[in-house]
Amino acid sequence: MPNAPKIEIRGIDRKFRKRGTNEDFCALSGFSLTVREGEFAAVVGPSGCGKSTLLDILVGLAKADGGEVLIDGKPIRGPSLDRGIVLQGYALFPWRSVRKNIEFGLEIKRVPKKERGAASDRFIRLVGLEGFENHYPYELSGGMQQRVAIARALAYDPEVLLMDEPFAAVDAQTRETMQDELLSIWEKTGKTVIFVTHSIEEAVGLADRVAVVSKSPGRIKEVVDVNLPRPRRVSQVRNTTDFSIITHRVWELLQDKELAPRNAGAPAVDVGEKILDGAVI
Ligand SMILES: Nc1ncnc2c1ncn2[C@@H]1O[C@H](COP(=O)(O)OP(=O)(O)OP(=O)(O)O)[C@@H](O)[C@H]1O
Ligand SMILES: [Mg+2]
What we know:
Helix content: 25-40%
Strand content: 15-25%
CATH class of one domain: Alpha Beta
Radius of gyration: 19 Å
Largest sheet: 6 strands, mixed
Structural class: alpha/beta
Strand order of the largest sheet: 6-7-8-3-9-10
CATH topology of one domain: Rossmann fold
Order of helices and strands: EEEHEEEHHHHEHEHEEHH
Number of helices: 9
Bound molecules: adenosine-5'-triphosphate, magnesium ion
Number of strands: 10
Mean pLDDT: 87
């Protein structure tokens, strides 16, 4: 039997006032998506289509103007430690060391000091930051800061992980390691994940389903099933035919025919071609 719905996004709208006018701008319009407990869902879509806005609403930092969002059947009432976030910026506390950043959620949860230390040790190792425990964010590269943000979100063991382009700033090799680490953590813990990315390969490599969002105002264009085997490692599935077919489907959905009429008569892309390797949007 399929798992129960964990996150139900039902027809949400989100409007912003256009600067210096009385007009509203619609960032999300009638956006609906249900993510089941333990599911790994990726969200892809053009820049500005409302992906980060969606995550702000799921985190509880912003409210939808219409529609509703339920978690475990209940409306979101604000931020909660049940939902871990890794945002597009790193959003680390600049006055806290790497270790103290990672322990933040555990302090709020009143986890005893010794356990906090053990947990932060584990996650520092996991993201490969041994030796940097006492560094401050300004002493780290962007990719290292991002790794601290991921460790911080994982350390307090939330049921839901909301990730906004978490690996965008890390180098290709670290990115691959972290993708596989994330999959292995997810396989072991059964967390529900919503993962926003600009990389089609990353979305297909990681997720059970890829939600493709239309250009602004954002709404779901299609949700693509990724029926690749589990447990899975991105590096292992990347060269399979099924991977290419699914990647190509997502890529097709992201093509905006209205915006690119000159491509209307272009020949179909051969999915075996290198053109899809590392395709980003
Ligand atoms: N606080 C805000 N005030 C006004 N407009 C906003 C605000 N936040 C977002 N927007 C607008 O809403 C739209 C969606 O923004 P959002 O950041 O959600 O896009 P995105 O899909 O995450 O883009 P990207 O892929 O570039 O990160 C954009 O046009 C943006 O300018
Ligand atoms: Mg964004």
